[in-house]
Specification:
It is built from nine helices and seven strands, in the order H-E-H-E-H-E-H-E-H-E-H-E-H-H-H-E. The chain is an alpha/beta fold.
């Protein structure tokens, strides 16, 4: 157990998880609390964050959580969130940029405002908050133990799949590219930057399709590995990247998608032979 903690534990670290009250954000927050970190959970719904923090603190884990309101939807809101975070901690070992939105509509009626809103939050908001908190990340970083940034992308940013969520899919492709840009930009500051590219995981955003057991079975049948994602899939990847084991990994887009990123037609040339 001591060896596992030395490789995957995050004891003594301070983390911020945006959009951490639900879905993948909550899964990440719980993993970090279980691993021993102090986790700040922020989203637009402060009461929901406070409730989740109370639930995580009741687990009796080595870490702790505190929830509060925080928005990345505008420059002013990001400035407020920055001030709030800096009032709570003078260093940040881990930043998880999870907050995001989607918009689904048929191609023929997909509106311009869906691009403005989604790109603003999913890409511009992510960049600006990261820029604002880089000083806290730099303070926490050391040569042997860099600070960590995890951006939440999507399999829809990896493969050409939109299903009506055009701006969402493109925004996640941008998140992946931004991750690599920031990995190069921040390496000299001892900050690693990686992204998750999840496939289908239960969340408010995916509840329309996999909010029921029947839906999870149907959608899981379209995933090569045969199921939708589970909290443990997120937790394992999180503790790898944030613990000592992930200290040498930067610029990676980790495909937590059950093999969807390599799914291809099985008979590309067979019919011609």
């Amino acid at each position: 157990m001591a060896y596992l903690n030395s490789i995957f534990g995050v004891s003594g670290k301070t983390a911020l998880v945006t959009g951490g009250a639900t879905g993948i954000g909550r899964m990440i927050a719980e993993a970090l609390v279980q691993g021993g970190a102090r986790v700040l959970i922020a989203s637009r719904k402060g009461e929901a964050c406070e409730a989740v923090a109370a639930e995580l603190n009741a687990l009796g884990a080595d870490g702790s959580a505190e929830g509060f309101a925080g928005d990345v939807g505008s420059e002013a809101a990001i400035e407020d969130l920055t001030v709030n975070v800096k009032a709570r901690t003078d260093k940040l070992d881990i930043l998880v940029n999870n907050a995001g939105i989607t918009w689904g509509e048929p191609y023929s009626t997909f509106p311009h405002k869906a691009w403005e809103k989604v790109m603003n939050i999913n890409v511009a908001g992510m960049f600006t908050l990261t820029r604002n908190l880089t000083d806290l990340l730099t303070t926490a970083a050391t040569d042997g133990d860099p600070s960590r940034i995890i951006n939440i992308g999507s399999v829809m940013g990896t493969i050409p799949l939109a299903e009506g969520a055009y701006s969402y899919a493109v925004s996640k492709g941008a998140v992946h590219h931004l991750t690599k840009i920031l990995a190069a930009e921040l390496a000299s500051k001892n900050i690693t930057v990686n992204a998750f590219a999840p496939g289908p995981f239960p969340s408010k955003m995916t509840a329309f399709a996999i909010g029921s057991e029947e839906g999870q079975t149907k959608v899981g049948a379209n995933v090569p590995i045969g199921r939708v994602g589970a909290p443990e899939d997120i937790a394992g990847a999180t503790l790898f990247l944030c613990g000592r084991g992930g200290a040498y990994t930067s610029g990676a887009i980790i495909p937590l998608d059950g093999g969807m990123n390599v799914q291809a037609a099985q008979n590309l040339f067979a019919n011609a032979i």
